[in-house]
Structures are given as structure tokens and as C-alpha cells.
């Protein structure tokens, strides 16, 4: 629930300091979690970890919108995706290696995992505290001309964002976000897509192990690495193409369909190679289905208040998919895990449908605006009032 207030008040909290601060805080809490001595302390630390971790992802997305136009956002967001893919690629191997520390100096392996992962987060957050800029205007690493160019680019990207009012938090914009059905649709879309991200992260080694039980744990962990590398490559290829074409929906739909094929291959595959290839089909779509939606929505919301509220809502509802995800692949369903794959196929189908509905709605709105059928909305309004309409203005296109 901390996603929404953190994105709404990000500017007031100074973005660079807040984002860096929660990274530092997460690292400190993670480190001390490795030292707890009872269940109550462990539970308290886990809740605090969630409070520190929740705002990071949505705040990073909002932060990127300060510096990049909507024609650049998907690729830039790709670096965040790359971080997730790399953590998935090495996380399993790291956890396995740390398992050999079990019992050293009286610490269990899970304690070593937290003690090792916490300090780098503190160090990286400390770096960001001193070197990140809060806005294009305060980007110390750019020349005055470059800073001015960034501001001009942002205004030209969407005319509705050119007024000073558009970049200030307004209560009316927050309310407008809550009332907008499209934002709720994007939030549901992310929930449906994120189910697959969480189950893939939780169960990929388990699924691969079920393909061939004779494989060792180390070998299984090694086989997860190419899947994550491929997922990052697939996202970057699609993000680049999506930015160039300025089209989002079709890539989200295709990502769902490709992943569905992968789940079907794992259910119906009769040999090891076919089922392992199915893992790559799933990997092709896991970050695209969710990631494209994450940049699609904010890039069409020129007013800061509505954009920040919308991203917080989208990520809060989307990441809640992590709650049901651990229960979709019970041990008793090995080796095909029919229930987990079938549920995921159904959710991805719904995800594709929601993509299609949003696509149709935006195309229909654009046609009406191009034909002048929404010009009545701005009759008698001043330029400033028209700009204040944000994405509802007939002069803007989705």
C-alpha cells in the first residue's frame, strides 16, 4: 500500500534522496534481519523490508518520466528489467553457493544470504544519494544547455505537459486517476501479467528439475541462467521496436500468446528438449507483458499528479500477484504442474483481452479527436485550462 503515497509525494520528498534512501534502508533492514533471534523480530523485519521495497519500483518509473520522452521510455525501463533478469539469473546460483556457508560461525545459510546481500544495497544507495539528480533542472552532470534541452524535450513530447501547473501535484489530478477506468484496467492487466513473473521466479528451478529429475541442483540452477538472459534480450528487442513504432498493445498481446505456448509445451511435451524450450517461450513474454504496460500508461498521462497516482495504483495491484503465486505449483503436481500452468494460461488470456480492450478504446478516442468530435470539451476554455485537462484534452492522442 506504500506505492501510492510514495509516488504521489515523490517530488516533495526529493526523488534522488528518497529512492537512494529506501535502497539504503532496505540494505540495513536486510542485514539486521540476518541477526534476529526470534520469530517476532523476524516478522517485524520482514514487514519493514516490504515497506522499504514497495516504493522502489514505482518511484523508479516516475523518476524515468522526468528525464525521458514517451518515445524513449520502454528502452530506458529495460535497464530496470535487466536488473531483475540478472538477479533471477544469478540469484539461484548465489543462494546455492551460500548454502555451503550453513553453520559457519553459528549462522544458518539464510542468515548468510541476508548478511551478504544487505551491504551492497547500502553502498549503491549511498552512491545514488550523492550523484543522482532530482530533476532535469538540477542535473549537475549536464551543462546548462543540456538541462534546458531536457526541459524543452519534455514540453514538446506532450503539449499538455508544457504548463507549469502540469508538473505540480494537484488534488484534482489524484482524484481523476482514481476515477479513470483505464487506470484500473492497466492495474488489472499488470496483476494478470505479474502472476507469471512471480511463479517463474519462484518455480523455474522446480519446473526444470521436474523435466529431468536426474539433473543435479547445481545443473538445474545453471539451466535457469539462459532463460533469464533470453528474457532480457527479448524485452530489449521489443522495447526498442515499440519505442520506434510508438505502439504498445500489440506487443503486450503477442507476449501473452508466446508465453501461453510455452506453458502448453510444458504440459504436453513428451521429451526433455521440448519442455526446456517451453521455458524459453515463457521467458520471451514474462517481462514484455508486464513491462510494456508499465511504460504504456504513464507515457500517456502528462500531468504529474495523475501519472504518479496511476503508477502507484498499477504497481500496488500488480505486485499483489505475489500473494497467490506461491500456491499455484504445489509439490504434489509434479512433474507437469497442470494446475499452475493452466491457471497461468487463463490469466494470460485475460491479460491479452484487457490489452485488446485498452487498445480499441484508445484507437476509438484518437479517431474521435482527429474528427473533431471532442472539440466541444474545450469550447470557451483558455489555453491554460485546456492544458489543465491533461490526457482528457482533445488536443492529445493516446
Number of helices: 15
Largest sheet: none
The Rg value, from CA coordinates, equals: 22 Å
Structural class: mainly alpha
> Separation of termini?
28 Å
Query: Based on CA inertia axes, which overall geometry fits?
Result: globular
- Helix content class: over 70%
- The number of E-state strands comes to 0
What series of H and E elements makes up the topology?
HHHHHHHHHHHHHHH
Which regions are unreliable across 5 or more consecutive residues at pLDDT < 50?
A: none
Q: What proportion strand?
A: under 5%
Averaging pLDDT over every residue, what do you get? Answer: 88
Q: What report would you give on this structure?
A:
- With 398 residues, the protein is an all-alpha fold.
- 71% of the residues lie in helices and 0% in strands.
- The chain contains 15 helices and no strands.
- The mean pLDDT is 88.
Record the SSE blueprint:
Blueprint: H1 3-8, H2 15-33, H3 39-53, H4 56-67, H5 73-98, H6 109-131, H7 144-157, H8 171-179, H9 181-211, H10 217-245, H11 249-268, H12 272-296, H13 304-319, H14 338-370, H15 383-387
Question: Can you tag this structure with a few keywords?
Answer:
398 residues; 71% helix; globular; 0% strand; 15 helices; single chain; mainly alpha
How would you sum up this structure in a few lines?
With 398 residues, the protein is mostly helical. The chain contains 15 helices and no strands.
Amino acid at each position: 500500500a506504500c506505492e501510492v503515497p510514495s509516488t504521489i509525494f515523490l517530488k516533495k520528498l526529493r526523488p534522488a534522496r528518497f529512492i537512494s534512501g529506501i535502497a539504503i534502508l532496505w540494505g540495513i533492514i536486510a542485514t539486521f534481519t540476518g541477526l534476529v533471534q526470534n520469530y517476532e523480530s523476524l516478522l517485524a523485519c520482514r514487514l519493514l523490508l516490504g515497506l522499504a521495497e514497495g516504493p522502489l519500483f514505482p518511484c523508479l518509473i516516475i523518476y524515468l518520466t522526468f528525464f525521458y520522452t514517451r518515445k524513449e521510455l520502454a528502452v530506458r525501463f529495460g535497464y530496470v528489467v535487466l536488473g531483475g533478469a540478472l538477479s533471477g539469473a544469478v540469484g539461484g546460483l548465489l543462494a546455492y553457493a551460500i548454502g555451503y556457508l550453513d553453520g559457519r560461525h553459528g549462522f544458518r545459510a539464510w542468515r548468510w544470504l541476508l548478511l551478504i546481500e544487505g551491504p551492497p544495497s547500502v553502498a549503491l544507495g549511498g552512491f545514488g544519494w550523492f550523484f543522482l539528480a532530482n530533476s532535469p533542472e538540477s542535473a549537475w552532470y549536464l551543462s546548462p544547455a543540456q538541462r534546458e534541452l531536457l526541459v524543452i524535450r519534455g514540453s514538446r513530447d506532450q503539449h499538455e505537459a508544457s504548463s507549469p501547473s502540469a508538473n505540480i501535484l494537484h488534488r484534482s489530478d489524484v482524484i481523476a486517476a482514481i476515477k479513470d477506468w483505464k487506470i484500473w484496467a492497466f492495474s488489472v492487466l499488470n496483476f494478470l501479467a505479474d502472476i507469471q513473473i512471480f511463479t517463474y521466479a519462484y518455480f523455474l528451478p522446480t519446473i526444470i528439475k521436474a523435466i529431468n529429475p536426474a539433473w543435479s541442483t547445481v545443473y538445474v540452477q545453471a539451466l535457469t541462467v539462459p532463460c533469464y538472459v533470453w528474457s532480457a534480450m527479448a524485452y530489449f528487442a521489443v522495447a526498442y521496436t515499440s519505442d520506434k513504432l510508438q505502439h504498445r498493445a500489440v506487443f503486450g498481446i503477442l507476449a501473452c500468446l508466446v508465453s501461453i505456448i510455452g506453458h502448453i509445451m510444458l504440459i504436453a511435451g513428451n521429451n526433455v528438449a521440448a519442455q526446456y524450450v517451453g521455458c524459453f517461450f515463457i521467458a520471451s513474454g514474462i517481462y514484455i507483458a508486464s513491462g510494456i504496460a508499465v511504460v504504456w500508461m504513464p507515457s500517456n498521462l502528462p500531468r504529474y499528479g495523475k501519472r504518479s497516482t496511476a503508477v502507484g495504483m498499477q504497481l500496488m495491484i500488480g505486485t499483489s500477484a505475489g500473494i497467490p503465486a506461491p500456491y499455484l505449483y504445489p509439490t504434489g503436481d509434479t512433474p507437469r504442474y497442470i494446475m499452475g500452468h493452466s491457471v497461468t494460461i487463463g490469466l494470460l488470456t485475460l491479460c491479452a483481452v484487457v490489452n485488446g480492450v485498452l487498445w480499441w478504446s484508445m484507437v476509438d478516442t484518437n479517431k474521435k479527436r482527429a474528427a473533431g468530435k471532442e472539440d466541444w470539451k474545450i469550447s470557451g476554455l483558455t489555453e491554460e485550462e485546456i492544458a489543465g485537462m491533461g490526457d482528457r484534452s482533445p488536443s492529445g492522442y493516446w
